[in-house]
Amino acid sequence: MPQALDEISVMIVDSQPSMRSQLRAMLGICGITNIALSVSAGAAIRKLRESTYDIILCEYHLGEGQDGQHLLEDLRNHQVIPLSTIFIMITGESAYERVVSAVELAPNDYVLKPFSADILLDRLAKALTKRDVFLPTYKRIEAGNLLDAIEVCKRDEVENPAYLIDFLRLRAELYLATSQTDLSQEIYQRVVEMRAVPWAKLGLAKTQYLQKRYDEAQEGFNGLIAENANYMDAYDWLARTREAMGELESAQETLQAAIRVSPHTTRRLRKLGEVSNELGDHTTAAKTMAEVVRKGKYSDFRDPEDHVQLIKAHLGQGDTKSASAAIHDLERSMNGLPKTPLCKALSSALVATKNGDTAAAAAALDEAAKHSPSDLGTSTGLKKDLARVCIEHKRDDQAAGVIMDIMRHAADDSAVEDIKNLLVDLGRPELGEELATQIRGEVKNLMSEGAQLAAKGDYTGAVMQMRQAATRLPGNTNVLFNAALALLKYIENVEWEASYAQEARNYIERVRKQDPGNERLKLLTNYFHALLKKNGVRPGDL
């Protein structure tokens, strides 16, 4: 055992008291006594937000609500646990081997029942040994130093050939995270040629997707599904690819096929509901979103916007009674969440509009106007719904404010065009043209002024100008990119300022999340890390 037994901390997640007691006894026999118990996924998440554990032992079947795989995905996707936490699945199903081979976020290991304390200890020892090998890379990733993490990864894969495939997978993911898609593609292709590992094929197709080579990506995802009908991540990426190609009906069919194989994943159900509403298939949307809302009662990551999608589906069916009931459920079950008041106001306006009650709709829109969609982190879809109902009730000023907010958060001109098309559909093309011209003028003026100040050597002025631009246009990747660049130019030409470096890193990360295939990110990231090294600063110190 690479770590002293009395230092190892373990969380057991199991809904059955007898199994929790049995696992606790086994760990005690092994000499591990620092143990926490959780009876459900929700209880586990709440504890894991407060404390860190070396190991999580989780039963695959957790009763009503989430299963162990869904819990793992929530923990990883929402970064509740660090990379160093080992997640081991416990299951009585021998078929789980096929399940775990077909998921992108796999547990570190899994143990099939029945098993002895010796077998459990052996698995824990192997998992901890492997964790320690990867720990130097994990620390750099969590410190935000992805370029150094890549270098450490390259070094350690040579020193630890037994874990070569795992290191290659991690390095390919790091290349994707730093927008070095050409290098990630090389690794995935290498692994495919070595042993045709499914995750490498998935990674290769993901790389093609990020490079906007959608036809090739679609072919890759289809091939994976043909090889293994249980490869759920391939379905998700195929649906995403088809949506990017504008093939919504095909995306819906893909999601429906995935749900037939794995019917319980909330995020997939949510996506099917959204796509179905957009297609006008309100029957499918209502059925799907009702299930999402039901499952939300068991999740720490429930979202009031799910109720809005359900209400839209009911209204699309002409069922105002069910829509009104869903509003009451929204108010009751989502009480206290920041987005709930706005979601309730919008939903009330939609129902009142369907009922022809203009006074109630106006009152609801007045209530909606009290809340800022951007401050609440609402989706673009919800903002569009709010803009639609405002236009329908001839509240142009309120609609313009919402639309300008969408445009200011738009990543680029193509996203602005999408909003213009919405206004064409609503019969207000002139409003779309007017607002699009205004937003493009804002971008052009702010960027031009920032560039002129930097060219004159006024790096302080350039920083202030680009900060203002990033505040006014928080979703525009070009603005965010140049805001980071202005801060780095200040550091290079004036003086080291830690807060500027942290701010620049935040802008870089925002660009990476919005446009992961942006090839310029590689140069900007290299520039950032070169300045850190020049000033003797480690990324983890920021």
From TrEMBL:
Keywords: DNA-binding, Phosphoprotein, TPR repeat, Transcription, Transcription regulation, Two-component regulatory system. TPR repeats lie at residues 232-265. This is Tetratricopeptide repeat protein. The keyword Secreted does not apply. Transmembrane segments: none annotated. PROSITE patterns: RESPONSE_REGULATORY (PS50110), TPR (PS50005). It comes from Uliginosibacterium sediminicola. Gene3D superfamilies: 3.40.50.2300, Tetratricopeptide repeat domain. Residues 9-128 form the Response regulatory domain.
